[in-house]
Structures are given as C-alpha cells and as structure tokens.
C-alpha cells in the first residue's frame, strides 16, 4: 500500500532544512526565525507521513546531526525534532554570524548575499551597500579586484531568490534596492541551456558521488546517516540530488519549494510481501537497536511539534525471520499510534491557532477599515483644501483684474490758504477771506474747504475788508484799483473765479494800506500812503468825502456811529477817526450835507499822545471812549465825552470846542499791532461783565492776545502760549499782525506773521481752531490715530521747525513746538498714537497726545521724549510696528531707530516713554541701545518690518541694507538690550535710494531711487524680482496697497503712480502737484492715499472705483430706459419726443435711421405728400425745435454731410431747416447753446454769443454740399449718355415709334 502524504498549508509555506541553521541566535524577522523559531501566529507548512501498518517499522534511524562541543553523542528519538534550531557559531541569516576568514570565504556568494540582505535593518540593500558589507566582513574582497563584483551582479540578476525593488521617488540617492523573496520558486530566472543526457551522463549519475567530508547541513549527508544499505531507496535519493553547480558548494541551501519536493518525493518504498530481502554476504541485517534511543536534544522543543518522518529500510522477508517481521511490524504500529495521537493533539493546537488567527484577522480588518475611513477623511480634507486654494487663486486673479480698473479721485486738498496780506472774516465767523499771492480766497471755517476764489488783476492785494452784512468784499490792489465783489452765499464749492461787480481803476494816487466799512455797510473809508482818506458809497460807487491833512501814511481807521444826543429825534451820528505816521489821531465829522467837493474838510479834533505810529483804533458802542495802540508799546484810553458835550451845547467861533481828554495810559511792554474794545456784556471767565466795564484786547510782537481791564490797567488773561526762548527770526515770524473780534461768537481771531490764523474762545480761553495758511515745502507726512478711531489726524514735516498736525475731518491744525531747526522726517507706530520726528538740530523727539480731563479742552500733542546723540542732522526715523497689533496687545512701542547724515543708525529704548503728555512735564531722555555704522553715504530712509524682526535702510550709496533686530525687553525696570546684525544687501540701483518700504502681507521689500525706478526685492535671497519704470524723475516715496498686490509711488516729476505688481504696469497716474512730491502715506484701510509736495499742497486721493462702477451702471440703466421710450415713441408716431430723446441721448445713428425711414415711407407711398421731409409731423418738429436742440441737429447734419452714403438724408434735413426756420432762429439756437454751456460751468453768458459756432458750421457745410452737387450733375450727364447709347443700339428700328420721346443732347 503506498504511503500517504498530508499537507497543512498556512501563510508561509516555506520550510527550510533545520540542519542549515547552526546558531542559537535570538528570534528575529528573518529567514532564520521562519525556519527555526516559528511564531505561533505565523502559519507554516507541515508534512505528516502516515504509513500503513504493514509498512510501519518498529525502529527508525534519525538523521545525523552535528553536535556542539561537550554535548552527548547519543540522542533520544522521541525528543528529536528536525526543525529545532541547534546553536552553532555559523548562523547563515546575517554576515555577523558567518565565520571570519583571512582568505577567500568558504561560503558561496548566494549565501553571503542572502545573509547580507537579511541582516540589514530594512531587509534591503543597494548594490553599493552590498559591496560595502562584503568588504567590511571579509578582507579578501578588499583586494580581490573587480571580478567578484561581476559575480555578485550575476547572482543578483539570475537567482530567483533575489528581487530588484525600484527606489522610491521621495528617497534621495542612486540605485535600486535588492531584497530576498523567500517564496520564490527554485532555480534561476533564466532556464539553463542543457542538452539531452547521454548514457555516459546517466551512468555517471548512477555512480555514487565522490567521498568527501559531508557538511553538517547537507541533505545527502542526512540521508546517508539514516541509510546503511545501498538499496533502491538510496539509489532513488541519490538520483534526486543533482550535481552542484560551479557557482555552488556543498552548503547548498534548499529553497522552500525544493524542500517541499524533497519531502513529498522521498517517501518509503511500498512493501511487497512476495519479495524477500537479500543481504550480501559481507552485510548483516540492519541494526535498529542503536536507533531506538536517540540522543536527547539540548534545546527545548518549539511550541508546534512536527512528527518526524519515519523511514525504515525495506524488510527482506524470509521464512527464518517471520517472527522478527511480526515483532517489528507491531513496533511500527505502536509508533504509528503514538504519531497519530501526536498529530491529533497538534491538529487541535493548530485549530486553536487558526481561531486566534481569524480573530486577529478580524481585528486587523477593523483596524484597516478605521485607517481607510481616516484616510478618506484626510483625502476629503485635502480635496477641500485644494478647492479652497483654487478658489483663493481665482479670487486673487479676479482681484488683480479688478485692480487694473482701480481709480483714485482727488477728494479734497489742503492748499495754501494765506500767504500774506490782509485778512477779513464774516460777522458770524463762519467764513474767512484770505490772500494767496494776488488772489482772495473764501474759505469755510468749519470744514476748512475752499468755497471760491475772487478774480485778481495780477497785482498783490494791499488792503481788503468785508462789509458787516457780508454782502460785499472790497479789495485794493497794488495797481491802485478798487475791486468790489459780491460774496456768494452758497456753501458748495465754485470752480469759476468770482468776477467783480465794480472796478475803480485808480481809486487813489498811492497804495492803500488800510480800509474800513461802517457798521451800516453803506460807506467805505480807505487811507493811502499819501495821507489822503476817501469815503466811498459802496452801492453807488462814488466818493462822498475826501479827508486830507495827514502827515504821512494813514495807519489806522475807525468809524464812530452812535446816537446823537443833540438831535431832536433819535438819530445816529457818524464820525471817522484816523491815525497816521505823524503819531496824531484825527476825528472827522461825517454829515449828510458833506460832499466830495474841491474843498477839504478839517478834523473836529486832533489827539496827540503817541510817540510812534498808531496801529489800532476803536470806539465804544456809546461813543464815549476811544482806545488807541501803537508801536510805542502803550495803549491810550481817550474820553470823548467833552466832544459830545460841546456838540450838544453848541459853541460860537472856531477852535473853542472841547477836545477829548486822555483818561489812562496802559503800558503793554510790547509793540502793539492790533487793539480793540470788547463789548461790555461779553462773558469772560474769571471776571464779571457789566455796562461800566471797559476791557480791551491787544496783539503784538509776542504772538499772544492779551485781555486787559482798561480801568485797572492790568492783564485779565492771555490767549495763546507765549514763547520765552525763541530766536529773533522765530519771534518775527510768530508776532501778530492783525486781530479780529467776532462778538456774535465771543471769538478772537489772531493773524500771525508765519501765515497761521488762530481762533480763541473768550469764554473758555482755549484755542478752538487753527488754520495754517502756508505749509511751505512739505518733506514728510504720516497718519495719526486716537484710542478709538483710526487715521483721524495727519502730521506734516515742512521746511520749518514746527510740526503741523491736521484734523482730517475738519482741517483744524495744531503746531508742535520743540525743535530748533527744520524738521526732516516723521513716523508713527502701528497704532498711530505717538509721533516721532527727526530734525536738523541732531535730535529726535517723541510726541504724545495731550492729557485732558475736560471734553471741551483743546486737543494737541506734546513732547514726551528726546533722543540726542547723533553728530549730524537726523534724516530718517522708524518706530516699532508691533505695538497695538493683535500679535502684541500692548500699545507701548519698544524701540525706535534713527538714521543720520553721520552715516550711523541708532537704536533707542522707548520703554520709559509716556503715552500721554501732561502740562509742565519734562520730556524723558532716551537711552541709545546700540549704534551701527551702516553706509558710506547719507542715510535717506528707514523702515521696520511688520513683525519687528527686520530693519532696512536706504542710502545715497545706492544700496539698501537689511538688518536683523535683536531686542530684549527686561522687566523690573532693568535696561533693555538691543542690537542689529546685517542680514543682506540689496544692490542694483544706479542712483541713491530715497525710500524703502517692507511689504505688509509678504516678505518683500520695495525701494525707490534716483534712477527713476521702483524695485521689488525678495527677502529670502535679497534679489530683485521686479522693476517698475515710468517716472520721469527720481522716485521719492513708495508704499504698498491692497495686500501687496499694488504699489503707489511719488516722484520729483510731481506725479503719483499706481502700479500692478503682477504685470509691472502702471494702473493709474494722479496729478495735482506742480513740484516734487516728497511725502506719501496710506491710511489703515488702504482706501485713502495722501500726497504732499513742495508746492505746499496736500492731496487726499480716495478710491472711487465703486462709485465709478455705480455711475456707469446708472447711466446704462437710464440709457436702456431711454432706448425703450424711443422705440415706444416710434410705434406711436410721436416723432417730436422721439427726435428730442435721440438728441438728448446723443445718438445720431438712431436719428439718421428715423429720417431715412421717413423718406423711404414717403417714397413708397402712392399719395403725393406736400411735406418737405416726407412727414408733416416731422416738419412741425423741426419748425418748433428748441434752440440748443436745433444747434445739435445741425451738428449731426454736418457730420452726415461728410459721407456720400448719408449725404442725401443730410441734405433733406438741411433743406427742411432752411425752409422752416429763419436765419435769426438759427443764430439764436447757437447763442442759446453757448449760454447754456457757460451757465453749467458757472460763468455768465454773453449776448450775441454763438456767432463763431455758426460760422464754423457754415464753413463745414458749404464745401461738402458743393461736392455733392457736382457729383449729382455728373451722374445726370452720364445718364444722358446712357440714353443716347441705348437709342443708337436699336439701329433706327424704332425711330418712328419714339420720335416724340427723343431727347435733345446739347
């Protein structure tokens, strides 16, 4: 009965011969672990041999095994297991376990390669790593040349045990990996070429192999140790073993498939009962006694015990040995029973293991499902992120496309308000009139905006005043002319200059320095440099009085208009008081009987008391007191009561009238330029008001307005801040040249020599408003903010030691005094609360808002810190950017940088600087943290990055240096530490760098240079990525807009340009300056750009893109409605409205189609029409068309007449106009059009206007009409020729028939 082979296959069917593993290494994930120490969870292939009872053997021979030194040579066959790992020093799973040799290794290359790969960490090696491992293990390969490397490549390429694994794309390096495939079938990758075996080869195969020392792990040696006889089984086993290849040795490692083949093909030979055993004479029967007690194994058996294969030699039956055979078969059956019991127990263990494996498999599947779900979530998140990124890219591209159409408009401007000359204000103080060169400007005080300009005569204004009723403005110019204007009452701005209603070409023979209007707004008094005073009737424009006798220039005028106590009825008496260069004050009586005859009126009184020129005169409301002040630093109070009493009593003779007396002399201790009396009921804080109070104000060289008590002679209070430590030049600039008293608002207006106009409140003693007349050359500008609102103020650095701070909403301004030289630069922090400035006085100052407890208190800024240490002027300054931002909630700046002409940069500690300024507090002296020599030439600009990590400096040496900021703020009042370290240099400009700016959204840097270009730099490698060219002169300032997608720059060419960063194109050019634009700043919301230039103009550019789009959409909607109405009118045959609508829409094409259709309809009609145009309704429309509409229609006719295709319609309409309208109507139409245009522009139309336009129209119509006439005549002549040719072609066949219709050709 043949033997039965049973297999149980698991995950890994590879089972190697246990005799190949000769080491006791610990378990590891390698071939050794799979063979010697199988994991309980790892499935393996087990072969169970079940022999029939008749072939069972009572004894069996275990395979011979090498024993370690010191172990027993005898082994117990019950404890033997061929898969048990027997420790020995040569383990074939890693190169470390192979023996070291000085010469050539005793193992073959496949063994060494397999051990090198399996012994690596990742179980894979490149070819170079295999070379290195072999050279490191064996010194032989280090000097053996290159031949062994070819053998290595040969075995790796041909042996199926080795597989090539491509290197992943994310793994750097060269070469693929080589791994060991334990499941690969035996043999080579290419079939070996072999011929048919011959007899000699078969005979050679049947011969026993040469006697050599069998290695411990050879399959043949194992079989030789089990078989002692050379029988058929041995021959069969020997025939299965092929001779070793030339590249292999006796230590051939069987592949798992070869192992399975050896187990399945090496079974016992079927037992034949009829055959007998024939033992040779020299050989006895096999001795099985020695095999019944195999040596005990030194190692514990593994968890899974595989029953050994029992191979008994074939029995040779003989009559003499029948009892021995029975006994032996019984022993074999007992052994088989034991084996079956072991197999049953092992199958139960395997079943348990299978159940555990299935449980593990289900857990693994659930884990895989969980991982897959998470992976799907990650994939969804990634896809969502990709879609979001794509949407962001689309939005950015859309934004970039929208930015190409972005436009800015000139919303408003701070222009020069007052340069020099006189100043006038309305009685309510709402409007003020100032002089800018030879032009008078009317300005709204509340908003600071310009209302209108009064046309000048190209000469400077010497004197000016406004009537108390605010109806007329009277101006005297250096040309000696008097110009009278009507003051507009509209609050809106008027673009056209206001023309005078009356001009007196030569009002005086000398320049007029003072003029005054009486309280009734009827008379005007003017005093000239020749000592003559003239009184004018404003409404009628003639002279009422000529007052002579003054000894020099008339310096002051005042009207006295009070009740006359001598009159029977209550009537007022008017007097004129004058002051002149001869220091005398004269009082003239102005009566109704006085005329401007040749005679000269004499003064009723002459007052002497001043020793210098009197500059101010004023009379009380009751006419009892006269006050005069002059440059002799005194104010004289005169009592006019005696003069009134003498007028009441009457006197006989001349010279006996009582003269006014000097009541009091008040020393002012300064030159007085303006003086005036306050109303008795004026409410002054700190003093009582009553009718007997006599209080006056003075203004002079100290630049302050003082309120005096005339009776006591003391100062009640002072309006303004008096400067004690100022230079002579500053003192001259800040002195008061005029003071205006506004009783209706209890306000004193002081006009200073430095073109500043201040409004002081008499009730609160505070500065309520300040107008800066002229800013001179503006060199820098920055936005300031309050604690509750952004960009509320604008700070300007001008060609002055004073810093101008404007209120953006009202244009109210303040002057910051502190520097002694010209301020060159200003800067603000991220929150905009504090202001820093640098000056030519080699110092930098920090300014903070004034601290006030009262909401009605005046706003302003005060100096809180001073930074001194530079050897030259400070031309660049930059504050910390992180304070007050979401990243840094504290609003206190940490540090500040200053750049100077001494070519150094200083870092200042601002940790002790206060954020508010209190009155009387001394500024803090800041400490310098570090000083760095940055450039070889002057430093022009500094800027700090938004994260306070970088600083950039631009210099005249054509470079921009970027520094890393190292700042450490130490708590506890200790000194902070700070330093700078050069990070890189941006080189590429051909001229000096004037401006530098960090990007607020990206790590980029923008620079502007004198080479007319703007460059954009990458902060990672400091290379230029973009260059913007378009300015025609030096680029002075640059800044970022719209998240870094746009740049705005200003230059010396007076232009402000807007750039698109992506395509390096100029998106818009803004022009409102006539000089270099030194200052440029952007608001926090990036919707407002402020530019300031050397022409003293500050322009606010606002984004008007949305407004323009809305306006276009509105126009489009209106046009659609009008087109629909036009079509409706055509359907209703309402030609009048259709023609008027087409003219109003400005669509000559629709009008042309209308006239063309009317002509075509008239031609197709069978009824003859008496209408000129073909339709009587159209004729009526042309007959009654309005003036301006008729002019537009004639212009359309002119355009149609230039084209031969449309000339027929044009001639028809022109013929209808000439027939239906008179020549006067046509002339009047063009005049109406000109007048309507002038009225829309704010000008006054002239009578008879439009003649020029009519002449141009006729000149354009005549030549084209003549050309069309000539063309028609030629066509008529050619038609005659055609008729003649047709008549001649019939060869006289129809002469008699057509004699009557023959044409005579001349």
Automatic annotation (TrEMBL):
GO terms for biological process: endonucleolytic cleavage in 5'-ETS of tricistronic rRNA transcript (SSU-rRNA, 5.8S rRNA, LSU-rRNA); endonucleolytic cleavage to generate mature 5'-end of SSU-rRNA from (SSU-rRNA, 5.8S rRNA, LSU-rRNA). WD repeats lie at residues 505-546, 607-648, 696-718, 816-847, 895-911, 932-966, 986-1027, 1028-1069, 1070-1102. GO terms for cellular component: 90S preribosome; cytosol; small-subunit processome. Residues 227-249 have a biased composition (Acidic residues). Residues 104-194 bind DNA. Residues 1-21, 27-46, 54-80, 181-321 are annotated as: Disordered. Its main location: nucleus. Keywords: Coiled coil, DNA-binding, Nucleus, Repeat, WD repeat. It is found in: Nucleus, Nucleolus. Residues 27-36 have a biased composition (Polar residues). It holds the Pfam family Forkhead. Residues 104-194 form the Fork-head domain. This is U3 small nucleolar RNA-associated protein. The lineage of its organism: Eukaryota, Fungi, Dikarya, Basidiomycota, Agaricomycotina.
